[in-house]
Give the backbone structure.
Amino acid sequence: MPLSSRHLLGMQNVPKEDIQLILDTANTFKEILDRPIKRVPTLQGKTVVNLFYENSTRTRISFELAEKRLSADAVNFSVSTSSVSKGESLKDTVKNIEAMKVDMIVIRHSVAGTPLMLTKLCDSNIINAGDGVHEHPTQALLDLYTIREKIGKLENLKVCIVGDIAHSRVALSNIFALKTMGAKVSVCGPSTMIPKQIEELGVDIIYSIDEAIQENDVLNVLRIQLERKAREYFPSIREYVKYFGINSERLEKNKKDILILHPGPINRGVELASDVADGPYQVILQQVTNGVAIRMAVLYLLGTLN
């Protein structure tokens, strides 16, 4: 069965069947990544534009690799060398790009809702690669894929999202996707970094990192987003590390069998100590690998809808 939508704008209201289809399709594409020749002709003749208005390393390279692995023509858009620097609006930029007969647009933008707006401006398939502090759906999908790969299930699994919840688009997408797949979700962090009414999304709030470790199967640890002035939400980095930083001593004291995810980039010595970031509990690099497979699956499933 095809996906129920021709765009991927977020995980809110995405049916369980769609998530299951993407995860299962990613299994097939991950096998391709282990071959000597990591390319299939699945999207040959399709053109994908990576329209990134914000800096990115993992997500942008991951999408570009996924496109090339599927034999699509990948075009990377750079704001600094484009007409945006001359004052061109997003609307005019997108209209001009689509006039070149592209098929899909991967968009990252600092303003929430930008991917939705693009669906009203053009006929291309739109994939949200992160919009402001709203959503980051492919990150949530690769997180779910990694959890399922390592533990074998998602239903009834206890997952705690730790850290800068208020500024994280990863947190919101994970909450929506995990809840849809039947996981029990909680959040943990300083009270100033947990949005009001977040419990209305069906999640529990934990204010102790030790309790979060004891009670959960998975910790998805988020970066403190210093570029979004997150530093103003707690007294000092030292205090954050004291109360919410995760190190091996804390893990061994509270629980040994726990899985740790992190979307990157890591603030080493802040949310994760180096002994955890490089230790046996984490699957951070596996997430990066799985990100290519997930994005291949999304591109394939959307690209074959047309």
